[in-house]
Amino acid sequence: MGICHYWQNDPELFDAVAAAALLRIGEFSPQGLSITAWAFATVSRSDPKLFHVIAAASLTRVRAFSEQNIANMAWAYAKASRNDALLFDALAVGAVTKIDEFIPQGLSNMVWAYATVNRRESKLFDAVAAASLTYVGSFTTQNLANMAWAFAKIEIYDRILFDALAAEALPKFGDFNSLDFAYLMWAFAKVGRHDASLFQAAAATVLPRIDHCGTPELGMIAWAFDQADLPSTAKAEKLFAAIVKKALKANLIGLDSKCGPQRSDTIEAQCAELVLQWIPGAMRNRYHQMGRELDIVFQAADGSLVNIEIDEVYHRTPRQRSIDSRRDRLLRRLGVHVVRFDAFDEFGREREDLAEALHSSLRAEGILALFPV
């Protein structure tokens, strides 16, 4: 830890350490292996050769790893975006064997690491959930947020665990920093835990601190309240207005650099292919700066964004209609023109007149006026 703490990210020093470590990796103890990976990851240095040899050396000694060595190693590889399958498999087995020896920080770091690299190790998550029930009273706010986020991210909803996390987090809402709080509420919404008392308390907590929220926090909190699908309250409306005001003040009205996944075998893809032929410059699966994914989007002549959403059958359910309405309301307040197209007929089958119906819908909205086809 001394290297990381005293010299921070000194390129020459870390290059020298990496070169020396490559030559002498066989001499490293389990502690030395884990702490070297931890140090490099902490200063955001992902040396491919070094991480490769550390992983290889660790595989032969993982049984000798302490629970802290396991947690540090998993965290380091996730932080460095090094998804080494063999290493993560071995660390998961080692962690389950030693799960009773983990401290709260180690438990939350383990599931955070596996969720970050999208590894759904059910046995590991089950073991961590069970162990966490003993220690949840000792969790820091960051432990609570990371634990909830990891289980939600990997789509494992352990009701007993989330009951315990909610009970422990609620009295500490005021102690969370903005980012951890946003992750926590995102997680509760993601797993479908939409307790009115929880979200009312969340609204009361966020409102006075809205000016201290960054872009990720604003997006996650707004998304969480959309998904919660709770009856509108004065507090929730104040929070919505505050989020819009903050977003406009920060000029969060454009597209993010990120793109969402693009599949070619969906009705959305068929519609997108047509729209991209009709409208020059239209794009698929881009993210708005407030975190909302836009099925199809293009920039109008006045610089504003036009979002075309392709709705599948599930969008007809009352709950999803309500969620869509709140999502669209936020985007419209941020200057986005939102158009929804139902790509299915009255019987829930893909429309046979898809191209004609989509073209007619866009023409009726005035979208194709400048793009004659």
TrEMBL record:
Q: Which Pfam families does its entry note?
A: RESC6
Please name the GO terms that the record assigns under molecular function.
Answer: RNA binding
Per its UniProt record, what InterPro entries does this chain match? FAST_kinase, RESC6_dom
N-terminal signal peptide: none
Q: Got a GO cellular component term for this one?
A: ribonucleoprotein granule
User: Superkingdom, according to UniProt?
Assistant: Eukaryota
Provide the RNA-editing substrate-binding complex 6 protein domain boundaries.
13-157
A Gene Ontology annotation in the biological process aspect, one of them, is: mitochondrial RNA processing
Q: Which residues cross the membrane?
A: none
Q: What is this protein called?
A: RNA-editing substrate-binding complex 6 protein domain-containing protein
